Amino acid sequence: MATKVKSTRKAASAKNVERDTTTPLHPIMELFINGIQDMYWAENHLVKALPKMRSESASKELQSAIADHLEVTKGQVARLEQVFELIGHQARARKCDAMEGLTLEGEGTIEDTVEGTPVRDLGINMSCQKVEQYEIASYTGLIALANSLGLPEVAELLNANLQEEQESLDLLSSMSEEITARSLQAN
Ligand SMILES: [Fe+2]
């Protein structure tokens, strides 16, 4: 078992090198790759879903936070592509049911609320926070796996994504408190 992990490390340290497909992957490496493919699908899905969330928001601050996060998300997709390169695998997406569910729930929130109201903004904000929480949980787990597999460069790239998700969550969280306070004062 240890030999297989070692060969993976060797492949991971060489850039632009395809993995030796004759060597079976360690099951933990397989789990890790599945997780990366899942996040690759999730981030690409968000690149398509975030513009709708932005256009349905009335608050300029929320619109701008979502627009900024869209650009950040494109950078995260690029980092995941670097991860695939480092581990010698072609970038491939694996459908992330959780992210599909979270964005569907976000669309439901839009349907259930009135256009241009702080309540809709709050609903969109909460949906975005759930997305961030999912991504934070996923990247945290994947970083631990990358470290265990002896892939520090990969862990570093994933950590950059994690930090951005955390920053986004913090911003959304403080924004939701402001939206709620303003809305309660107005009524
Ligand atoms: Fe992300």
Give the SSE string: HHHHHH
Q: SS-based structural class?
A: mainly alpha
Number of helices: 6
CA-CA gap between termini = 64 Å
Q: Please tell me how large the radius of gyration is.
A: 19 Å
Poorly predicted ranges: 1-17
Percent range of helical residues: over 70%
Mean pLDDT: 90
Overall, the morphology is elongated
Ligands, ions, cofactors:
fe (ii) ion
Q: How does this structure look, described?
A:
The chain has 187 residues and is mainly alpha-helical. The chain is 80% helix and 0% strand. It is built from 6 helices and no strands. Helix 3 (60-86) packs antiparallel against helix 6 (152-186) and helix 5 runs antiparallel to helix 6. The longest helix has 35 residues, at 152-186. It is elongated and about 65 Å long. The model is unreliable at 1-17 (pLDDT under 50). Bound molecules: fe (ii) ion. The site of fe (ii) ion has 5 residues, from helix 3.
List keywords for this structure.
187 residues, mainly alpha, 0% strand, binds fe (ii) ion
Present the secondary structure layout:
Blueprint: H1 2-13, H2 27-55, H3 60-86, H4 97-112, H5 118-148, H6 152-186
Short summary:
Helix content is 80%, strand content 0%. The protein is an all-alpha fold.
